[in-house]
Amino acid sequence: MRPWAIALLRRWESLLVLAFVAFVVLGSSLSPYFVSGSNFSDLTSNLMEKAIMALPLALIIIAGEIDLSVESMLGLSSALLGFTYALGWPLWLDVPLVLAVGGAGGLLNGLLVTRAGLPSLVVTLGTLALYRGLASVVLGPRSISGWPEWFTNFGFGDIPGTLIPWPLLVFAALAVAFVFVLHRTWIGRQIYAIGKNKEAARYAGINVARVKTYLFVLSGVLSALAGVILTARFSSARADNGQGFVLDTVTSVLLGGVNIFGGEGTIVGVVLAIFVIGVLRNGLTLADVSPDTQSVAVGALLILSVAGPTLVRRISAARPRRQLTNPVSNS
Amino acid sequence: MTGMAILALSACGGSSGGGGGGGTTTLNIAFLPKAVNNPYFDVAASGGQEAATALSGQFKQVGPSEATGAAQIPFIQTLTQQKVSAIVVSADDPDAIAPALKQAMQKGIKVVGYDSSPAKDARNVFINQAETKAIGQIQVQMVCDEIPGCAGDIAVLSATSTATNQNAWIQAMKDELASNSKYSALKLVKVAYGNDDPQTSTTEAQALLTSYPNLKGIISPTTVGISAAAQVLKQTGKAGKVQLTGLGTPNLMRAFVKDGTCKEFALWNVKDLGYLAYYTAALLVQGKIKGNPGEKFTAGRLGDYTIDSNGVVLLGPPFVFKADNIDQLNF
Amino acid sequence: MSVRAIDSPTSSALAGRIGLERTLTLVARLREVGILLVLLVVVAIVSIQAPLFFSVSNFEQILLNVSLIAVVAVGQTTVVLTRNVDLSVGSVVGLVAFVTGDLLKEHTLDVPGAIAVGCLLGVGLGAFNGLIIAVARVPAIVATLGTLYVYRGLDFLVAGGKQVSAIDLPRGYLGIASSSVLGVPTLIVAAALIALVAAYLLRNSGVGRELYAIGSNPAAAEVIGIPTQRLIFGAFVVCGLCAGIAGVLWGSRFGSVNALAASGLELQVIAAVVVGGVNIFGGSGTVVGAVLGAILLATIENALRILHLSEFWLLAIDGAVILLAVATDAAIRGYFQRILMRTGRR
Question: Are residues A241 and B69, on separate chains, in Cβ contact within 8 Å?
Fold first, then answer.
């Protein structure tokens, strides 16, 4: 094969595209209802909240940290939106307020990580409990409904005349912006530099603490936005909205080829991984496989995605004739 | 390798899936409980299965493993894609699943609520096990009968804090306690939530005993809660000192009724509930009833029913189980 | 998985490291005393506010609630010491709990047999984690996130929508949780024994010290000839065994088991370990600290209930306690490190 073809094949994103195609084929063989516009529309709209949270999470992991609190921030945002709406406040006031609270929650995460020097795994484990707890303090056992029709239609409906769910539009816009920022600007280069080697980045004049704090704030705001969208889609604000989302979100980021230790990964990979998991789960659901049983496949996929390349690398490294230019990543 | 695993999985999960579907008279009816893995819904499903066999229709049950948020929505969408002929659903959040159910109804799928009704305009008929008020009254009545002198502190051990029918029953209990002078010496000190999970229910029941040392009675209007509470009372030696009652299934409670841990509890015939729900859904699919108020129909072995002005069919009064009659029913 | 920075193992650096290690051990011990003090303060305040908190039966209740989490925390500590983490513990406990319960329900095995199979299953699941991590070199957080899904999925496959209820279980099995040894509930005795044995081995055995060495500096550990990967594999097997033990006791304690048993337990366990002063980046912390962390969290939760605080505040306060504990920990650690550096310069 020609070098460029090999290079293309070796890219993680190409493998994800192959996996996507394979799962579409699998899905259509499992269920006659799989290949239809409305099914793809449904499966997409069910993915959007996790997808929106996965974008900033990818940046945070590339920068060498993690944010487990995203699903709770989603829940807090939904609860707060319901609470303020039930007070009779107009939505144009509620939504910015909720996004601001999301930013504040992200800021708290960021400051605890960068200023207090605490490990983000532990900090966001704490705020995972804290924000979910605050959500149930705010709303208690209530669930708020009676949203304006345009609002629920934005969450649940499609763009008129198409099968494109409105939230996909939001996600697509965000994804394009993320691709641009991460891969085309100095901000993106700083994020990679921090994830590859924090000390070197600091010596190169990058304000590591500030960049990381901003990333956590961004994660908070977008998780809150996901909370708004989820509330609109479910036309119901509840404290337990989005419970359990964090595992799927982290899994899509890692399956997307982002290195858990930072410094590597692309937004395109993450977006592809989101849809790979979505298509796999949807196909299995249509074949009446319960979501918890599907977890075996998703978990295995995650492990294989990381173990596979490592094992191949180790086996080829063990061979006597070593390639001169072996780009073993050493992050 | 993953592909093989998935195929193996789908084989394991294979209940009667699509099978082409299409003819108007095929009965392809799916039950969607609040959560699978719940003994209560398993019993209801056995009734649905019985009706399916009697009508030579197809039966399947799908659902989320945990009753959180609007986890039912993707299932409704999947069932819609699979073009089932009717969905029989117990709504975890009546408003949240309404848009998805309406979409299903637009595509000609009949929707029957059981156990917990979806929003009124998002279903054809609701099979009500018993009236909310009656369910509240009978539980207060039972706890009053068992507590010596009908005086002292009582507590409620519920399912999730957002379960609508649980909350309605608890409200009915509170109304009854407040309005009926017979109960003036009973004081409801706490509503605890065991989330229909054995572990949480156990911990909550223990916490009730420690934090309210004068507790005289526990009402647990949920199958998982009442059996966990019975187990706790037995283990801590509080059986007989703290009275337990509520809603449970005879099979799970039989041993506790016989050893006196729980002297009486109530429940409607859950199996009949499932049977009636399937039967009603089948009649709707076959066009024999429309779901209009005032319509009368015969549901197999259960006899005659009438749809009331709210589109509700009432199964019958709750049944009180005691040591002398608990062996008569097996579910 | 690779190494962040390779320290040159010169003798002076090693000497400095040993000095640092000693100080950190001291800090860890101080940390245990610190948790004990906080625990005593909590107990004192709550006892004044609500006298019924201060009773033997209530303390017994708290310890009973802690016992299973504590056993899992012992295993988790072993793994975290080596700079790894096991997110799959909740799923292992759940799968073992269901399999054990099902074996007893169907009368396939008697009680000792089912318990043995359950523990072995835990070991097997832990070993599978260990293989993915030590042989295929998948980072532990990714590998165990994967097996968290896989094991839970297997649990659902095995369960097939069924539950095991108290009435299905033999009395001899249910009796374990309600029995007691010299007046102390058996579960508490068992948990204490496991924790003490693990604490002794980690502190005094060669392997124990090597686990600490791997966590404080994997590269240096490799250089001085410690079989790093083999020991990490071993740590995951131990963690699987501990989760297995908690799993076989689960049904006895809670009476009924479904496929969801112990889901989310991993977060409680990691919280206990972290609050107990075990460094999430490995190398320092003790089993005793982790168990004390679990007791502190359970005591606070119990206290909040006894003070009749609304249900809805519990989780938020849990989160705040975790944050407070790690922040305090970091502050103390930083303080001692500064003192160490000052004395080092002198």
Answer: yes
Distance of alpha carbon A320 from alpha carbon C89, whole angstroms: 40
Nearest to B37 among C259, C308, C312 (CB): C259
Contacts of A290 in chain B (CB under 8 A): 13, 36, 62, 65
Number of H helices, E strands in chain B: 10, 14
Nearest CA in chain A to C267: A125
The whole-chain average pLDDT of chain A stands at 90
Q: What is the pLDDT of residues C239-292, one digit of tens each?
A: 999 999 999 999 999 988 988 899 889 989 999 999 998 988 888 899 999 999
- Given pLDDT bands bounded at 50, 70 and 90, which one contains residue B60? very high
Round to whole Å and give the CA distance between B268 and B318.
4
Q: What are phi and psi of C135, to 5 degrees?
A: -100, -50
AA letter at A136: S
Tell whether C179 is within 8 A of chain B (Cβ).
Answer: no
Q: B320: alpha, beta or left, given left = phi > 0 and alpha = psi -120 to 50?
A: beta
Residue C257 three-state SS: strand
Looking at the complex, report in whole angstroms how far the Cα of residue A39 sits from the nearest Cα belonging to chain C: 25
Q: Does the beta carbon of A285 lie under 8 angstroms from any beta carbon of chain B? A: yes
Closest chain B residue to the Cα of A278, Cα to Cα: B74
Q: Give the closest of A46, A141, A146 to B162, CB-based.
A: A141
Chain B residues touching residue A282 (CB < 8 angstroms)? 78
B287 touches B118 (CB < 8 A): no
Tell me the pLDDT tens digit for each residue of B89-107: 999 888 889 999 999 999 9
What is the model's pLDDT at position A280? Answer: 94
Q: Distance (Å, rounded) from C-alpha B39 to C-alpha B247?
A: 12
* Distance to chain B for A292, nearest Cα, Å: 7
Average pLDDT over residues C178-205: 94
- ipTM exceeding cut-off 0.90 for this assembly: no
Task: Please give the Cα distance from B288 to B300 (Å, whole number).
Answer: 14
In contact, C141 and A306? CB cutoff 8 Å: no
- Chain segment A190-208, per-residue pLDDT in tens: 999 999 998 899 999 999 9
